[in-house]
């Protein structure tokens, strides 16, 4: 059985949504799926979906708070040696992307690199629109070189 990247992600989300706990932010705009099974290299997959359809409902501060809470839970409850992050960019529009300021990206980088002893093995972007290449270039400017190789 073969899947395209989009089909396999939809299959994975529908298959694991019944088995794993979904953590949502206050408005239900961001949904995080920490897959409960560890991979062969003892890493865990976390899927982030933006389910919102209106740009003004996207609150990056709420996203950051939810991310911190999930990181706390994962550090306490998992035995993973690292994480693979899958970001589904299906519902991201330019209105949401405009909210990603360099100050927000720097705060996110400090949290990821210094505040938590979490090893990010890879970051995968799926369902990415054409303008995401420019966004990835912007994000890579604030990340350390070791982490830019993993994006």
Automatic annotation (TrEMBL):
Pfam family, one: CRAL_TRIO
PROSITE patterns per UniProt: CRAL_TRIO
GO cellular component annotations of the record: membrane
GO molecular function, one term: phosphatidylinositol bisphosphate binding
SUPFAM superfamilies, A to Z: CRAL/TRIO domain (SSF52087)
Domain CRAL-TRIO: 36-151
Alphabetized InterPro entries for the sequence: CRAL-TRIO_dom (IPR001251), CRAL-TRIO_dom_sf (IPR036865)
Xref: PANTHER family: ALPHA-TOCOPHEROL TRANSFER PROTEIN-RELATED, GH10083P-RELATED
Protein's UniProt name: CRAL-TRIO domain-containing protein
Gene source species: Timema monikensis
